[in-house]
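Input record (one chain):
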Amino acid sequence: MELPLYTKEIRGTAVTQTLDYELTQDDETEDLFALLSEVKQNHPDVGAVSVGAIFSSYQGNRVQHVCDRLGLKMLAYLWHRDQAELLQEMVANGVDAVLIKVAAMGLGREDLGKTLKEMQPKLLSLHSKFGIHPCGEGGEFESFTLDCPLFKKRIVVDDSAVVTHVDDTVAPVLYLSIKQVHLEPK
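The corresponding structure, as predicted from the sequence alone:
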């Protein structure tokens, strides 16, 4: 997209786990505030933040709280979209995203690094069987976009490692720690 990339390691944790959020020291939300503060300082013309929240009021409330404090507008174009339909649209429109975290019954180590296109049948099956959210909105999985129509270059993962966060036989929590990437022309 030829836009500057800002990153920040999340040092906080989910200290405040209620639906509503108030400024809380050492909460992960404050890491987002610090990151967006840096963006706003370096690019004072930035006026909005686009989020991928679909149904998570927990997530939406936290981003809205940060935006309000920084005078930014929160854009949530996916809010309350049908997730099975949205997953199909993402796959059909060339969003190449891979699973980088799994945390639900039926998902495991073998699913990390697979694309949404590869996972679509399994995700829809798990939705029918267990009610998981097909887009991972309930925390069942997280994804990382490698390529999409908006990108000028494709992201290629060069090095990654699987990390076990919770070793549970029914619903393990595993994530793919991405160590190194590079950009490739399309």
